[in-house]
Amino acid sequence: MKRKVQEVSFLVSSNVTDHAWLAGLIDGDGSFYKTNGTGTNGKQYTTIRMVVAMNHKATIEHIVDLFDGLCAIHTTNTKRQKQMWFWRCSGDHLRVVLPLILPYLVTKKVQGLIFTELLELRLHSSAAGIHKPERQEELFEQLRKANARWTA
To answer: How many CA atoms lie within 13 A of 82 on its CB side?
Structure first.
């Protein structure tokens, strides 16, 4: 069964300086990751997300002003219980923002390219009903290895 792909619009900056600025934040304080979950219908799902996390609220609010997205607060489990602010981008929103910042990513360009391919796979599988779980798993493994470079 083919699903109809909906047009979704987000309010994002058209200024290339803003695109480069966000890419720099992602290179420094951002991450690309996947989460697994179970929907209310019991089906398993995987979400891919691009996130910037920091304790400077004004910067996160500025990202939201320029690129939309979800802004959330979280208290870390440290002695000082420091508050962290998060900007999160996933799904159709990620499909809009990632191509704008990809040319400016440096240290996380590999993750950006992996996400670009994942988004394409998901778009085509959703529209045509053709699923490529093996390729998706290969890309998730590449993402895991790319992310591990920074934690070693």
So the answer is: 9
**Greatest C-alpha distance within the chain:** 52
Q: What interhelical angle do 57-67 and 16-29 show, nearest 10?
A: 140
CA distance 23 to 104: 6
Domain residue limits, the chain: 16-148
Q: How many CB atoms lie within 10 A of CB 18?
A: 18
In 20-139, which ranges are E strands?
30-38, 44-54, 70-75, 83-90
Token digits of residue 8: 């979704």
Prediction pTM value: 0.83
Q: Are 13 and 7 in contact (CB under 8 A)?
A: no
Q: CA 44, CA 9: separation in Å to the nearest integer?
A: 27
Q: What is the pLDDT of residue 103?
A: 98
In this structure, which topology does domain 16-148 adopt according to CATH? Endonuclease I-creI (3.10.28)
Stretches where the chain sits below pLDDT 70 are: 1-9, 75-78, 80-81, 126-131, 150-152
Task: At 117, give phi and psi (nearest 5°).
Answer: -65, -40
CA angle 20, 25, 31 (to 5 degrees): 120
